[in-house]
Amino acid sequence: MACSVADSGFLFLVPKTRPIHSTRINQLASSGTYCLKWESLPQLSSKQKRCLISSRKRNVIQAVAVPIAPSPLDSAEDRKQLGEKYGFRQIGEPLPDNVTMRDITETLPKKVFEIDDGKALKSVVISVTSYTLGLFMIAKAPWYLLPLAWAWTGTAVTGFFVIGHDCAHKSFSKNKLLEDIVGTLAFLPLIYPYEPWRFKHDRHHAKTNMLLEDTAWQPVWKEEFDSIPALRKAIVYGYGPFRPWMSIAHWWLCHFNLKKFRPNEINRVKISLGCVFAFMAIGWPFIIWKTGIIGWIKFWLMPWLGYHFWMSTFTMVHHTAPHIPFKNSDEWNAAQAQLNGTVHCDYPSWIEILCHDINVHIPHHISPRIPSYNLRAAHQSLQQNWGKYLNEASWNWRLMKTILTICHVYDKEQNYVPFDEVAPEEAQPITFLKKVMPDYA
Questions:
Q1: What is the longest distance spanned by two Cα atoms in the chain?
Q2: Taking a C-beta distance cutoff of 8 angstroms, is the pair 161, 307 a contact?
Q3: d(CA 407, CA 413)
């Protein structure tokens, strides 16, 4: 017989030595002690079973106390408090272990998977028009309005990325050759090689929030942080004040090195790299010839930095929060990572329009085959069927402050430990952010 003293927070395993009478059962129940049959114990490893069975045979009574730490996500009130603390509108309750991706996908209406070439063309028209308008604004705006023109143009060119993103997932057009052509062209103004990004991004979807395997954001490892003292400050800045532009480092380190790709991917990678280098060799000199170096900075570099702000921000908001864990491959659960570990975030309407609803992100992780123009309908379905498990927010200062000042070093128990706890003497950038960033949601 195994008895659990629930109120004490400990689990006691006691071998069955003699029957327990009903009066004793009532005493146990009234004291908060509950008795379980041996067969009802959770699944144990073979080694654990041998130890317990051996103890039963010898009739040696030995209590083993194992602390049971309740998860702060188990209580609705705790989730509400965490949401307010982190800047979330809702933190979803934990998804049961027995729920599979298939269970979730089957609740989505079939129409959200339908590709509509007319809607795809509309998204191209929106991006081309808004980008052209942005370039016109840069050309005509006085110097003090240039930041607004750059913000608009950088957001508009992010829409090009979303179009290429749909093409890479084969959810843009019924014509697959057209998808690869449009995807390659959409990525060119961003100097982004289409095929290398596609291969890396597919792995992100296959292994979302899996330690060492996810190709998007990864937390810093304590061992890594301690082993390279010369780079510690750079890491603190990179995961702190510079984090909204850290996708630049990811862009350069992950997409131009042929050694990072499988042999069967190399030829397609080389074609994409050739297109990017051709654009740089022709496009950049043309811009400089027409507008000078200052024009290259105004018309290309600043919007490009604006794009990377959104690329970094969108990506880290999608999967980074103190309550969202990274897990080893042997503990990882696809449904929990994709539904429970992905964040829906509402941005101002003009951003949502120019970026083609890419931040309606949970359905995209349930199935990348859903086109961007069907993401809102898919999200409504998920809210109806799985709403209590969803993480939802509206973009706000507190949310960004949480990510930039807390989500740093990996810790299995806490998910993240901030830099100012790990290395307070080197964490001045984080301390600075805590002081200067507003704290309202």
A1: 94
A2: yes
A3: 13
